[in-house]
Amino acid sequence: MGFSGFPDEALIFYEGLVADNSKAYWSAHKELYETGVRAPMLALMDELEPEFGPAHLFRPHRDVRFSKDKSPYKTHQGAYCGVGVEGVGYYLQVDADGLYVAAGWWMPGDQVLRYREALDDDTAGTLLEETLAALPGDLTVGGDRLKTRPRGTPEDHPRLELLRHKTLHAGRRFEPEPWLHTPETLDRVRSTWRALVPLVDWLRRHIS
């Protein structure tokens, strides 16, 4: 069955989970999660797969082994389409506040070194600056950043602010509106991801 939108019950489910993040709440509302959240998300990802590839739905349970917060469940449902480079791809999230649509790079590690090497190159670095500047104004650039400049980086480096990034992504938040409950959601997600293709392509080329 094709995607027809996220029902209002999906947002209501997460409003309740924010208020009562417990196994009792989850067990009592599991069917609502399956029909109002997971099934529409799977249908939406199926619609996007021909253009962006297969999606991975994140599990609803939190890994609390090393966290002070022992809340057992995530208060959102995320989905991710990778592009063959670890940590780089397209992301979508539904929660009590609506929809978050983004793309970019979320996985630090050895990739940080390759990212900085690319920014040191005037051609690749300038291209990233131009790519970010050309993004639609309703997209917000974010990511994990160093508070200071990377070791060995001169203070007058032309791309110092970008060099502080350990991850880099851009996206926008859609507040709950009537279209969220209709197939128009597919168009909103698709158009946002398409606007972010140049960023994903730069990342795929330069940090793989």
From TrEMBL:
InterPro entries: CHP02453, UCP028451
Protein known as: TIGR02453 family protein
Pfam families, per the entry: DUF2461
